[in-house]
Amino acid sequence: MSYVYAVLGSGRQGTAAAYDMARFGEAKQVLLADLDPKVAEKSAARVNLLLDREVAHACRVDVTEPQQLEAMLREVDGFVSAVPYWLNPRITTAAIRARASMTDLGGNTELVRQQLLQSPQAEEAGIAVIPDCGQVPGMGTSLMTYCMSKLDRTDEIIMWDGGNPAEPKPPFNYILTFNIAGLTNEYYGVAHFIRGGKHVEVPTFLEEDYETIELPDPIGEMEAFVAGGGTSTMPWTFEGKLQTLWNKTLRWPGHFAQWKAYMDAGLLEERPIEVDGLKVSPRQLLHRLLEPKIKAGPGEPDFVVVRVVARGVKHGKPCQMLVELIDRYDPDTGFTAMERTTGWDAAIKAIMTVQGDTPRGVHPAEIAVPPGLYVEELRRRGFALRESFDAR
After folding, report:
1. Residues 201-246: pLDDT tens digits?
2. Which of 61, 159, 274, 344 is at 20 to 30 A from 69, Cα to Cα?
3. How far apart are the C-alpha atoms of 234 and 136, rounded to whole Å?
4. Packing angle between helix 337-354 and helix 12-24, nearest 10 degrees?
5. What pLDDT, on a 0 to 100 scale, did the predictor assign at position 107?
6. What pTM does this model have?
7. Nearby residues of 209 by Cβ (< 8 Å), 6 or more positions away
């Protein structure tokens, strides 16, 4: 059987998702949709060149126009939304009306929870929707549930993750491989964790949560600190079932102090302030100044780390399960590690929704995605996962 897929937003992550669905999803066709037809055409041409077949096709779509969007989605079995996160609730509505299964790259937990409210309508339409996919949450979410599936009872689950330049350059030692609005959205506000069996909100960038960890050579020491969004809906799903759930972001040393200074100066605030008679949003100003300085260039090598530790009980004995994935820029395809881990996670789950491996309705990844099958699909794509199991 063959399927028609689509990607909304034909940028970095969208192109990676389209490539993966075309290669692994029994695709008859993949539509690359974008407001800018030239961007869509470039993306489709790249996918076709990599796969040596005419499977990807470009089209212009304005996702803010419901009728236009729904007309396009009626032609597809499933799709990935790779547009800014604030558009996903209305795109979910369009997917239901068009009866097209959907995954998205998320980016805001409160909006994801709004999407979940549309589950009855999606189930009635016979489609599956999995929001908040990508590197973390997304890949991280499914690797956490995979670890949990290996234990008879899980008490504590923790995750460290991050995407960083393989060759850090001062003064920032960081490269941006996605929209800067997604980064500042993660850095500002609170993270949702479980502590003592209860859902708690933890402010980002707290100094008392800062630590350093050692990763395998040649990476070495990295900083770990609290940023928002990484656990997505898991604290609500597992409240009362887990005693502890948290995650921290990994960066090269110095990043925490730099961004803490920006935050303390008020540069991540969104409310406009008056400057010489003009209203200026500090965050938008930061975006405009900083993004050109840290945006990743073509072929700039990066790496992604997702390390998950689950502690609990197996066969009546205390034990610990560890899964670690380290991925790097692929010079053969030109996809960065962040594109591979983000776009391919959304694509894997989009393929699952179309092929009937997930329940109908709108469900988070920790409920919808079979963890064992997900890990099989990661390995099928060449991701190297290190697993260890220690009884204590």
Report:
1. 999 999 999 999 999 999 999 999 999 999 999 999 999 999 999 9
2. 344
3. 12
4. 50
5. 85
6. 0.95
7. 202, 225, 226, 248
C-alpha triplet 153, 157, 158: angle, nearest 5°:
165
pLDDT score for 42: 98
> What average pLDDT does the segment 114-134 reach?
98
Report the 3 state secondary structure along 351-373. Answer: HHHHCCCCCCEECCHHHHCCHHH
3-state secondary structure of 20: helix
pLDDT band, very low/low/confident/very high, at 299 (cuts 50, 70, 90): confident
Distance CA 65, CA 171 (A): 42
* C-alpha separations of 137 from 21, 43, 179, 193, 229 in Å: 20, 25, 16, 13, 7
Q: Would you state the structure tokens that stand for residue 312, as one six-digit string? A: 């609990």
> Phi/psi at 204 (nearest 5 deg)?
-70, 155
182-198 CB burial, b ≥16 within 10 A, e <16: bbbbbbbbebbbbeeee
Token pair, residue 297, equals: 């260039």
Domains of the chain with bracketed CATH: 3-134+340-370 (3.40.50.720), 136-337+378-391 (3.30.360.10)
Query: What are the pLDDT digits (tens) for 74-92?
Result: 999 999 999 999 999 999 9
Q: Would you give the distance in Å from CA 85 to the centre of its chain?
A: 11
Closest to 132 (Cα-Cα) out of 340, 362, 323: 362
pLDDT of 38 strictly over 80: yes
